[in-house]
Write a structure and sequence with these properties.
Chain lengths: 651, 176
């Protein structure tokens, strides 16, 4: 019997309409853990660099993580991997909710799609019964609507359904996959799903998930719950409210948006409004939120409540999570009421709540600068909010200027020309980033922004505080019960870190310390993405219940193998390196590894180069960011070295 | 029948507090696995969550007595603007639906208040505090409680007829 994982993948060939249940190799699990790790291995083996995102040869993989469906609280992530149409690199998108556990209960760790279906279909997985079904009647239906229609059609109220909306069908580069209260949004995974002709995947399972050492596993899970309870009563003092607790940012719960509204930029990352958050705004926004929020809700087997059901009078109810609450609001320089309203339509269309508002704001800015002409915008209402609705509709339908904007700010700017590139000033690796424009370079964040394969800072940053604490007392207080550190030296880094003087940004944390910190944060995310754990209980918040010291025990008890901290670090390094190699093989170079020019006002080119050099070296890569043969061999991946050598990438 | 004092164990459900996480289902199934916690599968749970988030229906229901025949009731209830089917509240394992049945055998499942635990596991795992454990003493008629195996056998007898069941058991024991 296989423990934790089911040991089976579903292979769906859409071109031929073929369905296979394939047993997997347990060795691969030991090497790559599961989830993202094994996804990366499959992509490396089967998707050579010539393959375009919208090619039948591209794969689309839905994977549950190794611990998904086990009692480990918060292990519910679905990891969707493919090639991103926007970055042309490995797409890296995850969703919470209920899909991954249900897939495991149905008896599968992954669903791997290849080929393209000649007509729109949906996949229905019910334990051993798997069918490709016609979805032509669902064409053009909303992503939320579709989930319900399929449940009714199947007469399976408990089926979990992941669906795309119109944006995915039309291969909009920002298209998301919506599911329950969650979505896989970043990097256009919904577009690839649409390109393959998949409207939705419905799954229902009633099989067991086994763990190898039950008593031990339960004890660990109970400890996590205990810790969550205790930690909830002990928010971290001196940090912004969304970072004080656990879970992904509790945007649906908190009302205080001073930090986001005054520090993030409005428009397409254009203006910082330093004194925005007044008593009046606070009052108004609180009212809006309380009026539309029906209930705070969780993902599978998790006590945190990071999402909410939102019912704006006169509009269909939908579910919102995290930060989309502010993205439309701030892109349009509008208010929260507008944000909640337009997000409903956007969710039905199935678009990424980070990129889409930025693309729309970008269009508005181009219009105001005269780069987009009256002809381009013919028919667009003149009022601000009307303009955003109009743009959203055009983008998801790929109509007129919407067809260009649907490719994201980077590609749209190239197509539009006439200086539009200047306005696409918030991209890393051709993809929209958080709309932040800050003052002083932060060396740790410089590295994460530049080198992150996920191209999304919130999925890289984490357990180390984002800023120093002002006083020594606060620092000492913080490090006192900081059990999550992999090494005592991290406490020292934090104790020394200051706002001003010798121990402040950009020269402190030092290059070496910065590399250490980034490596730790990254490692935690790579573990989570392999295990299918929510970052909100692990790699993202300060002092989370899961950390490098208890994870090995979880994995050992679940799988029945011996895993220790070194072994776990090795496996995640292997995954991180493999994804790097995959992207390097697709053309990623050192020149791509840079934050937007105006991301920080004060830049330090020499220091930045030094940081990159040191980071690459630490990772076992050459100074172009290419993994070396030696380091690949150490990670048992000589086959990767051979491939890279044959292609002339390793010289 | 004589009257006896009995400890009544109940779980109070506050649907307003439920966040829909289904941890209760998961832990119940894990607790009742053989060996304990070795596997989990919400389908085996003795509590189930009726979860229709768009309609704001979050209703944990734990399994009660097994019902050999389906009832006539299919009424609708509207509570605070939300519509529930009568079956939503029903705790019976009954022939007309698959709730509260072993997924493999179809045998009925019933909440046993986690027998030997101090507090029911679903209550312990519900950090949202939607489930609260309550105990009270009550004078009740002494009744014979059916064991889990008896309930299972009874349901088989109801399904196939007692004589068929007896015959099958007799045949099986001869083969062994
Ligand atoms: S912490 Fe929040 S986002 Fe993460 S699993 Fe729990 S409810 Fe979902
Ligand atoms: S554990 Fe509690 S909050 Fe979660 S579904 Fe069950 S009753 Fe609701
Ligand atoms: S009390 Fe125990 S047996 Fe009953 S539903 Fe809860 S966990 Fe299951």
């Amino acid at each position: 019997m296989r423990y934790a994982e089911t040991g089976y993948n579903l292979e769906i060939d859409l071109s031929r309409g073929n369905i296979e249940r394939v047993e997997t190799d347990p060795k691969l699990t030991e090497h790559h853990l599961g989830g993202l790790g094994t996804n990366a291995k499959i992509l490396w083996d089967r998707v050579p660099p010539e393959v375009e995102p919208f090619s039948p040869e591209n794969l689309l993989i839905f994977s549950a993580g190794l611990l998904g469906g086990t009692p480990a609280p918060g292990a519910n992530r679905t990891i969707v991997s493919t090639i991103s149409p926007q970055t042309q690199l490995m797409a890296y998108s995850m969703m919470g909710g209920f899909f991954a556990p249900e897939l495991k209960y149905a008896g599968y760790d992954k669903v791997i799609f290849r080929g393209k279906s000649p007509k729109l279909i949906y996949l229905w997985i019910h334990n051993d019964k798997v069918e490709i079904r016609d979805a032509s009647h669902l064409q053009g239906k909303g992503a939320v609507e579709t989930q319900e229609l399929i449940r009714q059609e199947l007469n399976e109220p408990k089926a979990q359904v992941a669906a795309i909306g119109l944006a995915g069908e039309n291969r909009v580069y920002m298209a998301s996959i919506e599911q329950g209260r969650s979505s896989a949004s970043r990097l256009g995974v919904g577009a690839v799903m649409g390109d393959k002709g998949i409207k939705a995947i419905a799954v229902r399972g009633s099989k067991d998930i086994n763990v190898a050492r039950p008593a031990e596993f339960m004890e660990l899970s109970n400890e996590v719950l205990e810790y969550i309870k205790a930690r909830e009563e002990k928010p971290i003092p001196g940090v912004m409210p969304i970072l004080a607790g656990l879970g992904s940012p509790q945007e649906m719960k908190i009302h205080d948006e001073k930090w986001h509204t005054e520090n993030f930029n409005w428009g397409n990352s254009r203006t910082r409004r330093r004194d925005y958050w007044t008593k009046d705004v606070e009052e108004k926004w609180r009212k809006t939120q309380d009026n539309v929020r029906t209930r705070l809700i969780s993902c599978y087997n998790c006590p945190m409540k990071c999402g909410a059901t939102i019912s704006v009078p006169g509009i269909a109810t939908y579910m919102m999570k995290c930060f989309s609450k502010l993205t439309y609001t701030m892109a349009a320089y509008s208010d929260l009421d507008f944000g909640f309203k337009i997000a409903q339509r956007a969710t039905e269309y199935g678009v990424d709540g980070f990129s889409t508002p930025q693309v729309m704001a970008f269009a508005v800015e181009l219009q105001e600068a005269g780069i987009l002409t009256e002809e381009d915008m013919a028919g667009c209402p003149s009022d601000n909010e009307g303009r955003f609705y109009w743009l959203l509709d055009r983008i998801v339908r790929r109509e007129g200027i919407g067809d260009v904007l649907a490719n994201g700010t980077y590609w749209a700017a190239q197509q539009i020309g006439k200086g539009a590139e200047e306005y696409a000033h918030n991209n890393i690796k051709k993809h929209e980033q958080l709309p932040l424009k800050l003052g002083m370079l932060n060396p740790v964040y410089f590295l994460m922004y530049s080198t992150g394969e996920k191209i999304n800072i919130t999925q890289i940053e984490g357990q180390f505080p984002q800023a120093p604490f002002p006083t020594m007392e606060e620092r000492e207080e913080f490090v006192k019960d900081w059990i999550q550190v992999p090494d005592e030296k991290f406490k020292d880094y934090l104790l020394k870190w200051d706002f001003r003087g010798e121990y402040s940004n950009p020269y402190y944390p030092t290059v070496e310390a910065s590399v250490d910190i980034v490596d730790w944060q990254e490692k935690m995310h790579y573990i989570d993405d392999a295990l299918g754990m929510c970052a909100g209980l692990s790699s993202f918040p300060l002092k989370p219940p899961y950390h490098i010291h208890n994870y090995p025990a979880f994995i050992s008890a679940a799988l029945g193998v011996d895993m220790d901290e070194d072994g776990l670090s090795l496996a995640t390094k292997r995954n991180r390196t493999l994804i790097r190699a995959f992207n390097v093989r697709r053309g990623l170079t050192r020149a791509d590894e840079k934050p937007p020019e105006n991301h920080w006002k004060k830049r330090f080119p020499e220091l930045e180069a030094e940081l990159l050099d040191a980071y690459y070296k630490f990772k076992g890569w050459d100074n172009q960011g290419v993994p070396t043969r030696e380091s690949l061999e150490e990670l048992d991946m000589a086959y990767v070295a051979e491939d890279l050598e044959q292609r002339g990438i390793i010289k | 029948m004589s009257k006896v004092m009995k400890k009544i164990k109940t779980i109070k459900v506050d649907v307003d507090k439920c966040n829909g996480c289904r941890a209760c289902e998961l832990i119940c199934s894990a607790y009742h696995a053989e060996p304990r916690y070795s596997s989990n599968n919400p389908e085996r749970s003795r509590i189930r969550l009726i979860r229709k988030p768009i309609e704001d229906v979050f209703l944990p229901v734990y399994a009660g007595e097994y019902a050999p025949a389906e009832c006539m009731g299919r009424d609708k209830y509207v509570i605070e603007g939300k519509e529930y089917g009568e079956c939503d509240f029903c705790r019976a394992s009954c022939p007309s639906r698959d709730a509260f049945k072993e997924p493999d055998s179809g045998l009925p499942l019933k909440c046993d208040m986690c027998e030997d635990e101090e507090e029911p596991l679903c209550v312990m795992w519900c950090l949202a505090e939607a489930l609260t454990y309550e105990e009270r003493e009550e004078e009740v008629e002494e009744e014979v409680m059916l064991s889990e195996m008896e309930t299972g056998l009874k349901s088989l007898a109801d399904k196939y007829g007692l004589q068929n069941l007896v015959d099958s058991v007799a045949r099986m024991s001869q083969k062994e």
